[in-house]
Prior knowledge:
29% of the residues lie in helices and 20% in strands. It is built from seven helices and six strands.
Amino acid sequence: MRLVRYKVKSGDSLSVIAQRHQTTTKVIRNANGLSNNNIRAGQYLLVPTSTKDDSTYSLSAANRLAKTQSTSRGNYKVTHKVESGDSLWSIAKANKVSHQSLAKWNGMGPRDTLRVGQELVIWKSASDGAVIRTIFYSVRSGDTISGIAHKFKVRTNDVVKWNSLQKNKYLKPGQKLKLYVDVTKTSA
């Protein structure tokens, strides 16, 4: 840790300063003996900051979340990028899991709010007669992501996520794609 001396500018708030220095308002309040979030322009604050990257700290929020999300709780893992209008309940229902489990797998509480763009982990198992297999598909000339997804009865977004594809990039013939397919649903 190191302390940075910061002069408060007009329009600054503790949350803005905390975000800029990758810390929390509580840490700044404690370091400066503040009892509330009131600050004024021209005031100097001591802002504790980390001297190393977050990845070096095993207890950083990002590392704790990654560990929670990677703990196996099913046969395979699917990631879901939160879109506008999504809720834990709607995502859980669409994936046939409980919203409490979905929250737990992602280090959240069942009533926590979601952020657009946030990535959630969903653990699937081979229950309900589903037989999930990992298939490596070789892209053919003329194939599209949506066409491949339709053929194997999976979601286009899942194909993109499973293979770290970019939606604006084209597929190349011969390119290998990893698919998690319920073989009871497809004859391909």
